[in-house]
Amino acid sequence: MIFYNNLLAKWFLRKGKKHCFMLGGLFFTRYKYLEIWEDMEVRIHARQFWECFLLTLLPALVLSLFFSWWWMLLPFATYHIFYWLEKSFRSHSVFDWEALENCGEADYAPFYLSRASLKEGESRLADLLKAEQIEMSWRTGFALINHYLANNQWQKAVETGKKYTKKYPSNYYIGLKYAKALCETGQYQPCISLLSRMQVLPNEGSYAGRAVYREANLYRAMEQLSHKNYKQVVKSVETSKEWPENLGVGKPYDNMIDNRLEDYLEAKAAAGQGDSRKTSALLAAVADYTISRSHFESGNLLSALALRESGKVQEADHMVAAWSTDFPENRVVQWCTAIYRGEKEKAVGMLQSRNDQTNTTPWEASFRDSNFDLIVRLFSTEQ
């Protein structure tokens, strides 16, 4: 049973985040009504409480007769014991399973959005599409684009992003996902143009917009480098170093920015133009970058290559050899070592194993390496 708009709940919970509490299998809420999903949740919990109560009532009576009346507390505590034990070992509660298996259908989009979060694959997509059929809210679009991006269905993500961006032009949550999809499908200029029109409010996670902006410009620079369009390479690299205010994140101090990839690309362009002096200066900047000893960054590969291309082959070889000693289990290190040694087939095979991972630990588990995918693309597009 649920008691709505309850005075006890209003007094006990005040205006905190929680709006309801359970006492003896009864729920008390300060709200006048609950959303369908919340209502379903509390009713399942109430039923679970009474099931646990009835299952332990008789054993508690017997134990109280032979030992102590304290055993009569067992029926009231069993549900809570099982609930917290189960929650400490599993990321989802039994409620999630019950909601997934036993709930019916509803003409309510948030219901399907919530249920989709408990599913995977095609069954997840089916619930998301059902939610869209009921209501094309921005949250539905956001969830759909996320699903397509997570499954590398880039074209589907582009189509969905375009549709929802048209419907919600000022929603930067949708816009950023759409920009990411455009970037991944090689539509770099449309991606950059979209980001230039966007107004992202500053927040803790707002680095995403600037990250996509940098990726789009650097991918475009790599594409132009493969076509030997060196002037455009330099232009794209310089643009990638900008921190547009409209993307909601400020520029850090210069000593906190790793520009090795940008400088390495520009060095390649300078070499293509025959400017040996500029090439040497840029390679020196890449080689002299202060490398962290606590974690490995894929940009270290560029530092080693810059040393070797500057004629310091022994120093570069020594650096690469030290990686395996300092980070023996790091698969990014193994990939970078293979690229440095020219073992491209081995590197390709390692990337395939990374992409095939599902429930295993990702390569970059302990450190978010924002350059790795960019550097992978660089060496996959090299002639």
Q: How much helical structure, as a percent, in the residues?
A: 55-70%
Q: What structural class do you assign from the helix and strand content?
A: mainly alpha
- As residue ranges, the low-confidence spans are none
**Beta-strand proportion:** under 5%
The total count of strands amounts to: 3
- What is the residue-averaged pLDDT? 87
Q: Strands of the biggest beta sheet: in what spatial order?
A: 1-3-2
Number of helical elements: 19
Give the overall shape, derived from the CA principal axes.
elongated
| Alpha-carbon distance between the two ends | 70 Å
**Sheet of most strands:** 3 strands, mixed
Element pattern in H and E:
EHEEHHHHHHHHHHHHHHHHHH
Question: Could you describe the 3D structure shown?
Answer:
With 383 residues, the protein is mostly helical. Among the domains are: 100 residues, no CATH class; 82 residues, Tetratricopeptide repeat domain (Serine Threonine Protein Phosphatase 5, Tetratricopeptide repeat, Alpha Horseshoe); 83 residues, no CATH class. The protein is built from 19 helices and 3 strands. A hairpin with a 2-residue loop joins strand 2 and strand 3. Helix 6 packs antiparallel against helix 7 and helix 7 runs parallel beside helix 9. The chain is elongated and about 90 Å long. 31% of the residues are buried.
